[in-house]
Amino acid sequence: MQTSRIILASASPRRRELLERIGIPTIVVPAHIDESVLADESPEEHVRRLSRAKAECVAAGMPEGRYFIGSDTVVVLEGRILGKPADRAEAAAMLRSLSGNRHQVWSGFAIHDRREGRTLDGAVCTDVEFRTLSAQEIEGYIDTGEPMDKAGAYAIQGIGTFMVRQIHGSYTNVVGLPLAELLDALAELGAGYPFMNREQQP
Predict the structure, then answer these.
(1) Is the pLDDT of residue 1 over 80?
(2) Which three-class secondary structure state does DSSP give residue 101?
(3) What's the rounded Cα separation, in Å, for the pair 178 and 38?
(4) The CA-based dihedral angle spanning residues 14, 19, 28, 55, taken in that order and rounded to the nearest 10 degrees
(5) Which residues of 53-87 are buried (b: 16+ CB within 10 A; e: fewer)?
(6) Which residue, of 30, 84, 150, 162, is most buried by count of CB atoms within 10 Å of its CB?
(7) 109 with 121: CB under 8 angstroms?
(8) What is each CA distance from 105 to 11, 67, 89, 101, 172, in whole angstroms?
(9) Where are the domains of the chain?
(10) Pick the CATH number of 3-200 from 3.90.950.10, 3.30.390.10, 1.25.40.10, 3.40.190.150
């Protein structure tokens, strides 16, 4: 894999950390697109559409690079998409609604191969169950500042892990990027796995 040619169309440090943890250093170029939910759009359709839009938008604006990765994550409770909270009050409302309940985390991904003019995309859903939270726990968690730039107002890989009773499905999907599915798509596009580059094998 020519890892220097992987461009991540996302400002999320969590997605970058996930990729670099498995040996894929990235060039980060955030995409600036409208992330509004369209009428009658399902969570899966929403995250797949935005993932493709991010990857293709950044590719169109860069003269170099072959593989462009876009991703988007939403939290869904009883069919309602929860984005990033606009303020403290909205973060508290989200956390109260998630308390003691099971919700879904949808993460979409897209890989645009500029050389081949091809884009692969997909989406993964993980069920997450929260323990019942006290008002003091909610307010204390918001005081940390962690919820304010997270879909659903929490980070499973951060302080917010204390709220999670169990998950059913991909952990990396909840963090923001389903690595197993992403690696399969990279392999299908000919990028291969970072730790199985045959050109570097003895």
Answers:
(1) no
(2) coil
(3) 23
(4) -100
(5) bbbbbbbeeeeebbbbbbbbbbbbeeeebbbbbee
(6) 150
(7) yes
(8) 19, 25, 22, 13, 11
(9) 3-200
(10) 3.90.950.10
* pTM of the complete model beyond 0.70: yes
Q: What is the pLDDT of residues 47-88, one digit of tens each?
A: 999 999 999 999 999 988 899 999 999 999 999 999 889 999
CA angle 33, 159, 54 (to 5 degrees): 15
Q: What is the mean pLDDT of residues 84-97?
A: 96
Of 117, 113, 82, 129, residue with least CA distance to 191: 113
Tokens of 80: 């309602």
Among 173, 172, 145, 179, smallest CA distance to 160 is for 145
Residue recorded with tokens 């997605």: 15
**Catalytic sites, residue numbers:** 72
Per-residue pLDDT reduced to its tens digit, 122-146:
999 999 999 999 999 999 999 999 9
User: Encoding tokens for residue 97?
Assistant: 């609604």
DSSP state of 78: T
